[in-house]
From TrEMBL:
<dbReference type="InterPro" id="IPR036237">
    <property type="entry name" value="Xyl_isomerase-like_sf"/>
</dbReference>
<feature type="domain" description="SCO6045-like C-terminal">
    <location>
        <begin position="390"/>
        <end position="473"/>
    </location>
</feature>
<dbReference type="Pfam" id="PF05114">
    <property type="entry name" value="MbnB_TglH_ChrH"/>
</dbReference>
<dbReference type="Pfam" id="PF26136">
    <property type="entry name" value="SCO6045_C"/>
</dbReference>
<feature type="region of interest" description="Disordered">
    <location>
        <begin position="284"/>
        <end position="364"/>
    </location>
</feature>
<dbReference type="InterPro" id="IPR058711">
    <property type="entry name" value="SCO6045-like_C"/>
</dbReference>
<protein>
    <submittedName>
        <fullName>DUF692 family multinuclear iron-containing protein</fullName>
    </submittedName>
</protein>
<feature type="compositionally biased region" description="Low complexity">
    <location>
        <begin position="290"/>
        <end position="343"/>
    </location>
</feature>
<dbReference type="InterPro" id="IPR007801">
    <property type="entry name" value="MbnB/TglH/ChrH"/>
</dbReference>
Length: 516
């Protein structure tokens, strides 16, 4: 796939959400918008997006459910859906996340599990091998270039072999995929995992950045929550400044998903972002003719040296260890580690992906191998890596969403924090899908939902989840007669094959009024 977006300059944009559609249209200086791909239908685009497109505003679909970091190969239907949205929007590229969102099923002969959230992949050579094949499959099926986003995480996998920057650099080198760098997620990982954003920026190939995300969050009890519901903080803007000191990003986008403020506050946050991008202390400042200043040139040299040194170290380490599956993962999955490799697979970028970028530092350079979508590669080591990753991800997801034990090697308290966060997120979505439930149950909604959800993974989507929760509450929750009656009517109205008649609904409404 050609890198059609290589010279694309997007400018400063904002995430389009239905709740702020009118505000986004009216905000001054918005060069482009991003829309959650799963929230739109190609044949029925919202009128606001159509008006933006008519004005020449670029609209980029941002996927959240592909799970390209999962052990399974990308689902063809999900890829087709993402492609259809890119085509309907006339988008210059499409973006997704380096994450897994489901596990279990065919590869593990266990029940399929959905996380309802973006979860980190282990930064190991085996997981990288699987991810690269998945990325190539996606690139083959999408009509426009693909860019992938680094995610925020509350926990780390045991026995990781690469840093985030090294992992991203290897991914780009092997596949030619572009990067969507979320600086808020880099800050989140600094607080939650002790990782240095500057080091990550030094190690990753910044020239492959398609655009950048900026978002707000909040710290509670030493854990940073990437909420997208709070104002952008100074530490996040500092990470943006770190990035800007290395490269002028093609685009920067402000994300906001909840607790939407007034238009003036959103405009102020966009101005803060523009201020960082235009700061005179950054790239090109203080040097005649727009050339990088001495400090910037030194930083660039240091960055390149850091990437080369990091690759040399990781390649040498992989040759020493045989780049086997990590011992912690082997303990977690109960499988034998995959056969040793003499060196981690590495590639040069093909000419179709922006010229040759040979890996340095002793890593073996081999051409990227295209993989037909859907089928096995025929490489026993690759299939072993995929199977081991499947078992590890399923074990972790059992602990996170189904009350299973925490796999060996993980930080138990952090896993439990993540599990509680997933239940809270699930409750919030059910409350949006079925707003009658929190109204009927009042203050009892959250505790009743937590009791229902902890041992029960999401199954069949959130509307099914709402129905199952209502049935569980009728059986187990301590409800007064009026709430029980109203909840029973709500459940019957939606669970029955045929909806109740108008007369039945009027009688029920009258009875509910009398009961109060």
């Amino acid at each position: 796939m050609e890198r059609e977006d290589q010279g694309l300059r997007l400018g400063v944009g904002i995430g389009w959400r239905p709740e702020i559609a009118d505000t986004v249209e009216a905000l001054p200086g918005v060069d482009w918008v991003e829309v959650v791909a799963e929230n739109i239908c190609p044949g029925h685009l919202p009128a606001s997006l159509l008006r933006l497109r008519e004005r020449g505003t670029k609209v980029i679909p941002h996927g959240v459910s592909l799970g390209i970091g999962g052990a399974e190969r990308p689902d063809p239907d999900r890829l087709a859906s993402l492609a259809a949205r890119a085509e309907a929007l006339g988008a210059p590229l499409v973006t997704e996340h380096i994450a897994f969102v489901r596990a279990g099923g065919r590869l593990t002969a266990s029940r399929p599990l959905e996380a309802g959230h973006l979860l980190p992949v282990p930064r190991t050579w085996d997981a990288l091998r699987v991810l690269c094949e998945n990325v190539r499959i996606a690139q083959d099926q999408l009509p426009v270039p693909l860019a992938l986003e680094n995610i925020a995480a509350l926990f780390a996998w045991p026995g990781e072999e690469l840093t985030e920057g090294q992992f991203l650099a290897e991914l780009v080198g092997r596949t030619g995929v572009r990067l969507l760098v979320d600086v808020a997620n880099l800050h989140t990982n600094r607080v939650n995992r002790g990782e240095d954003p500057a080091r990550a920026l030094d190690e990753l190939p910044v020239e492959s950045i398609a655009y950048v995300h900026v978002a707000g969050g909040v710290e509670r009890d030493g854990v940073w929550h990437d909420t997208h519901a709070h104002p952008v903080t100074e530490p996040v803007l500092e990470v943006l400044a770190e990035l800007r000191s290395r490269i002028s990003p093609p685009g920067v986008l402000l994300e906001r998903d909840e607790n939407f403020p007034e238009a003036a506050e959103l405009a102020g946050e966009l101005d803060l972002i523009r201020g960082v991008l235009d700061s005179p202390r950054l790239v090109g400042a203080g040097a005649p003719g727009g050339a990088p200043s001495r400090g910037t040139a030194a930083r660039t040299a240091t960055s390149a040296q850091a990437r080369t040194s990091a690759r040399t170290a990781t390649s040498a380490q992989a040759r020493t260890t045989g780049s086997t599956a990590t011992s912690a993962q082997a303990r977690t999955t109960g499988r034998t580690a995959t056969p040793a490799r003499t060196a981690p697979e590495s590639t040069v970028g093909s000419p179709a992906h922006g010229g040759e970028r040979a890996r340095t530092g002793g890593a073996v350079a081999v051409p990227a191998r295209p993989v037909a979508s859907g089928g096995a590669t025929g490489d026993p080591a690759a299939e072993a890596a995929r199977g081991g990753l499947a078992i590890a991800q399923a074990s972790l997801l059992e602990a996170l969403v189904a009350g299973g034990p925490v796999p060996e090697g993980f930080d138990g308290p952090r896993i439990r924090v993540q599990a509680r966060a997933l239940v809270a997120k699930r409750a919030g979505i059910v409350a949006k899908v079925a707003p009658e439930l929190p109204r009927i149950l009042g203050d009892g909604f959250r505790p009743a939902f937590v009791a229902y959800a902890r041992p029960r993974p999401l199954c069949g989507g959130y509307r099914r989840d709402a129905l199952d929760f209502a049935a569980h509450a009728l059986l187990h929750a301590d409800l007064d007669p009026a709430r029980r009656r109203e909840l029973t009517h709500w459940w019957r109205d939606r669970a029955d094959a045929r909806p109740p008649s108008l007369a039945t609904r009027l009688v029920r409404a009258a009875a509910a009024l009398v009961g109060r």
